[in-house]
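Hi team, as promised in this morning's meeting, here are the two structures we talked about. I've kept the exact order from the run log so nobody has to guess. The first one is mostly here for context; it's the second one we should focus on when we meet again. Sequence first, then the predicted structure tokens.
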Amino acid sequence: MSPILKTEIKNIDHLGIVAGLIDEIGIVETINCKLGIDPREKITAGILVKAILINGLGFVSRPLYLFNQFFDDKGIKILLGEDVENDYLNDDKIGRVMDRLYKYGLNNLFIEIGLSVIKKFKIDTKYSHLDATSFHLHGEYKREENQEKESEITKERPIIITKGYSRDHRPDLKQCVLDLITSSDGDIPLLMRAGDGNEADKAVFGKILVEFKKQISFDSIMVCDSALYSQENLKLIENLKWISRVPMTIKKAQELVQSVEIEEINLEEIERRAALNLGGYKWKEEIVSYGGIQQTWLIVESPKRKESDLDKLDKKLKKEKDKVEKLLKELKRENFETPEQARYKLKGINRKLKVFEIKEVQLIESKSKDNKTIYKISGVGNEKPEEIEIQRKEAGRFILATNLVDDEKLEPSEILRNYKNQQSCERGFRFLKDPLFFADSFFVENPERIETMLFLMSLCLLVYNLGQRELRNSLKRIKIGIKNQLGKLTLSPTLRWVFQCFQGIHLLILNGVNQIINLTSERHFILNCLPSSCQKYYLLS
């Protein structure tokens, strides 16, 4: 009689890669060290955070109150440890750990993890990028009415959940703000900070950079959009190195984009710029003093932006022409008591027009039905050639500024390329707002938990971007690509695509012996290109 076989099948899929990256970073050890380990607890805070990150990067849209269900069909013992049971991952335990994380200090903890990543993985920190986004929330959040806003960045009170400028185009909902600083090398998050829902970037960006500088041990050139560029912020960050976009509300900036002549470039320079992925861009440097700080201003002309701006100008001309024709008809029908009143009305109309003006053609005196003297005015609409020429010249132009001058002066191409890399933060925000992400819709009911959720989401982004960076660097080093969605070889795959490639990998437990099934040679190759900690979850080490 043959022995009875005891079999069990659990899914591993791409979660072994996620678990391996978390191990490689040392997140479990860092959190257990900072929060401490209670010998009475069945699962440590570090392991629970690891479980949350695996859940978050599982790309299965389930809120945390269904958290333990996520692991029902997963190889929990291989991913989290032999002693971990499903019922340890309950919402009470999650809530307690989230509260402990908040009490320790989310910003400091995130920076500590980020600094260890920089050191271990040799992340290039010459350039860092700061940006912000908003997350809309559902719920009452009445507490914000009793909280007082503070001007300092370092704060002990929770964030205020309230209405503000919504990047999600949901001004009807309350929100919170997430500030991120990322490296230009691999988009690795270096700092996360939760902010009030009505917080203005211009009011806090300078303070964020000053606080960040106090906590890091490396020198970095900070890249930011025009929200940083104000006299107050420039004074705050006078000891930091920065690149920023200059707002067109500054008179000097308006004058330069309207008047500067940018010289044509020769064929050799055209080819050089194309090789730097700056094909078509032209620029001119100016030394400017603003806010008492000497700076290099780079007036840049972008071909794609110019085409877009000129197209918008043509639409604007057509729209205003139609508006002028309508106004002329209305003006012709209107009666005025005096010539001055008629001309005052015409003057008021012209003040509201941008690229057209209505010139008086005729002022007619006549009698009304009740024999009162009335005046009618007629005009003709003309384009403003000078104004249109200015806007055509402005088309496609913007200004970048940096305080790196003299001996530290940067090449114009380096300034522009690194400002274009400001998409580093935007890519992170798109990732965090993806509908497949586990915290797409916040459910927690107090600001402290929301801040902690943002911390955990940012940790997910850190794990994901680090894994993508390491894979791409390995492929470039050995000069061998992997197939993308179209079946073509690429040296720059997204980690999400790799996750999809790992669907269908199972852990087979046969009479207590673990085996991995469906691990093809291609999947094996990918694992060899990732940090070694990823391989043990597929029983390769």
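And here is the second protein, the one for discussion:
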Amino acid sequence: MFLTISTRGDAAHPATDLGYLLHKHPDKAQTFSTSHGTAHVFYPQADAERCTAALMLEVDAVALVRRSKGRGRGGAPDAALAQYVNDRPYAASSLLAVALSGVFSSALRGVCKARPERADAPLPLRVEVPALPARGGPDLVRKLFAPLGWTVTAEPVPLDTEFPEWGDSRYVRLVLESEALTLAEALRHLYVLLPVLDDAKHYWVASDEVDKLLRAGEGWLPTHPEQKLITSRYLSRRWSLTRQAMERLELVRLAEADDSEVEAIDNAVPQDSGAEDEEKPAPLAVLRREAILAALRDAGAARVLDLGCGQGQLVQELLRDVRFTEIVGVDVSVRALAIASRRLKLDRMGERQAARVNLVQGSLAYTDKRLKGYDAAVLSEVIEHLDLPRLPALEYAVFGHARPRTVVVTTPNVEYNVRWETLPAGHVRHGDHRFEWTREEFRAWAAAVAGRHGYEVGFVPVGPDDPEVGPPTQMAVFHVRTEKTEKTENAEKTEKAEESDGAEKAEKEAKAA
């Protein structure tokens, strides 16, 4: 990952003053550690007429995966490989922006005690980025940088120079030139717009990102024609944060137009008054556990299997209800079971309570006689982690062999994914998901399973039930078919057949008359 900043000079104002402004000596090659690799700063050219500073970031791919675990959004089925084989070590992105702010922090703030007059003055600047991902193409690059006073050259990088008919990649070679900007302004433009063009960040975007954006965007973002796109992309399309940033930017714009301070505009509520907190909606995981517990209670289950129990959140909730007399958590991961044991504090649990719970290691792809004879089994957010060819094995192990009286299955509703603010189009909710089903696909699978193994099935929405795309989680509740159920169904079929025959007979009589 590479970026160069160049300037011109003369005898009165040598170009090597760039070293003072960046706080990096032109005669030295310096190395800095970052959270995801090593940054190197060196000067390919440094004389009175021209000076070029280079920032090279060597990304540690393994550290990137470890430190970003659980924060990114991946696709299936090659998400595990994509964590390591990608463009992150080579293409300018939020990684380079973070390195830029860390290595050149004083220059970003416009601080230079040795040459303060140079820090405040415009410089002849040239910035080059050999590989910049640009979702939106060269046109968007120009729309973002040109209003800020840059002359923009964005050359598309072909997919393969030997096969020009394949077309261009999403990367460009970027050259920015300006005579009217200070170095601090240039660095702040890069800090914000590099991740905006990549349209992704390597870290979780929290509320403090709004403050970072407004600090770096001071003086240019409130009036930028692409303000909304910049804000949305920089904040990873988190709608609540984007709205907060846009409101604050509007206050800045109004204050500048009125030639006053922001505090003078935003004075409807005193600074020290405490606003009432709005009631936050319950997290989806909590709603899911509540729906599962309600289904188990309705079924009158006392002995329950949590298949794919993970870190034991549902087991913990089941233990709080005394009607569940025996709870077994099953998971293939020994590490997950160890975490569940610590969460439940099994080593300090009273004897009577400990007798109600058991954690066992096992694979749901194989039959296991230990799982037979229970009232109910729960498969909460489990099936989507299996490759589709292995799903029939789980189906037989649970419905055919263990055969609890009730089975509760929850899985994501892929149709709802368009409502997630931070989930890019076409991606699944978790990097380990092998598939995510529509409501129709899930209902078809559940009906087929019920038919093959002698169950009846009903469906329950979990979370807000959107009129267009349905709920975020879909839940199926299976019950073993009984003689009573079959008799009722047969009676209903007979009644419908008689009604149909009666209608036919009446129609024939009417025609004859």
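Starting points for discussion:
The first helix runs from residue 17 to 22.
The radius of gyration is 31 Å.
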